[in-house]
């Protein structure tokens, strides 16, 4: 009986700590421009996180009006995923780190431009805080290569994932979600 109570107290404590941790990890600057509240897992990052700004026409105020969008909306060329600063990023594929010189300041101080010519993509990752790989390096599958941050991001810690054609610029950006392989987190 006493053991049962102890176990129950321990369990409640764990639940409490769990919810507190979640609250601490939320970033007060986050604004979500989607109704989707699903937390997604991806082989590219640790944990499960919400989409903040989807790819395509958006009401988010950071983008200038685009002819593809109605009501003066802007076009978001990537997919933003909210995750606390420091969240590790992993390489689900082998890729090469390409020069990021062509990327403007909106992507942060040290954004990544990754290339897998065989699979036919470039991937820009914006707002990284720590980057553990350098230009010219071929990164092996499974490598933890960077951490999420808020560099260049007034809207809090998140990452911007932008899929482009190999060697193509911003205008070649396409829906990045299949490359990110987002899957809803399994509920216990
Ligand atoms: Zn973005």
List keywords for this structure.
3-stranded antiparallel β-sheet; alpha+beta; single chain; 7-stranded antiparallel β-sheet; globular; binds zinc ion; Glucose Permease (Domain IIA); 188 residues
Explain what the structure shows.
This protein is of the alpha+beta class and 188 residues long. It has one domain (28-184): Glucose Permease (Domain IIA). Helix content is 15%, strand content 31%. It has helices at 2-25, 177-180, and strands at 40-42, 45-49, 51-53, 56-58, 74-76, 79-82, 88-90, 95-98, 112-116, 121-126, 128-131, 138-139, 144-148, 158-164, 183-184. It has a seven-stranded antiparallel sheet. A three-stranded antiparallel sheet has the order 2-1-15, with no helix packed on it. The chain has a three-stranded antiparallel sheet with strand order 7-13-11, with no helix packed on it. β1 (40-42) and β2 (45-49) form a beta hairpin. The two termini are 27 Å apart. The relative contact order is 0.19. Residues 53, 76, 78, 80, 160 line the site of zinc ion.
Our Rg estimate from Cα atoms comes to 19 Å
The counted number of beta strands is 15
CATH structural fold name: Glucose Permease (Domain IIA)
Please state the average pLDDT score: 91
User: What is the fourth-level CATH superfamily?
Assistant: Glucose Permease (Domain IIA)
Q: Main beta sheet: strand number and arrangement?
A: 7 strands, antiparallel
Structural class: alpha+beta
CATH architecture: Distorted Sandwich
Distinct small molecules = zinc ion
């Amino acid at each position: 009986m006493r053991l049962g109570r102890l176990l129950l107290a321990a369990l409640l404590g764990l639940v409490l700590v769990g919810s507190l941790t979640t609250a601490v990890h939320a970033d007060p600057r986050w604004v979500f421009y989607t109704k989707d509240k699903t937390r997604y897992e991806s082989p590219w990052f640790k944990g499960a996180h919400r989409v903040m700004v989807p790819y395509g026409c958006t009401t988010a105020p950071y983008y200038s009006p685009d002819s593809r969008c109605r009501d003066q909306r802007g076009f978001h060329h990537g997919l933003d995923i909210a995750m606390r600063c420091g969240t590790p990023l992993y390489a689900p594929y082998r890729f090469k780190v390409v020069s990021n010189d062509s990327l403007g300041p909106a992507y942060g101080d040290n954004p990544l431009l990754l290339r897998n010519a065989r699979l036919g993509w470039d991937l820009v990752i914006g707002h990284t805080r720590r980057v553990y790989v350098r230009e010219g390096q071929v990164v092996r599958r499974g490598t933890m290569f960077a951490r999420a941050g808020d560099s260049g991001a007034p809207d809090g810690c998140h990452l911007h994932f932008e899929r482009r054609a190999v060697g193509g610029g911003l205008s070649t950006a396409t829906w990045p979600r299949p490359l990110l392989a987002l899957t809803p987190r399994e509920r216990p």
